Amino acid sequence: MEKLTFEEIMNQVKNDFESVSEFAHEGYDYITVPNDFMPELDTDYESRKQRRLEYQKTLPIGEVKTVDQHGGEGEGEDWHIVYHFVNHDVYVRVDGWYQSYHGTEFDGWEACSEVRPKERMVTFYE
Description:
By secondary structure, this protein is α+β, with helices and mostly antiparallel strands. The chain has one domain. The protein is built from 3 helices and 5 strands; from the N terminus they run H-H-H-E-E-E-E-E. It has helices at about 5-15, 20-25, 45-60, and strands spanning about 65-70, 80-85, 90-100, 105, 110-115. Strands 1, 2, 3, 4 and 5 form a 5-stranded antiparallel sheet that branches. The protein is globular and about 50 Å long.
């Protein structure tokens, strides 16, 4: 599989999802798997999950994992989620804000940015 850039991945994401909200909330976890793809794995929740992951690997986008999520009810107004497009080693962060009376809001596709994992040392006083 040829590695895609952030821009190429975002073009595919925009093709696969109607809105940034749909991408942020559902990601590729709820992608529709064709009925004829590995039907023997359509028996229970874990098997269907494995079937979806196997199907995902056949797509140009490849395997996608949620690696970080913050915000929502009880966690303040800042909200984000980070997806790792494993086969391309690209991380996409979607930023938004949460309001209890309306849910999560986004500033269109501009809410998506490329990020990289970075370790930081943190000092705690206990």
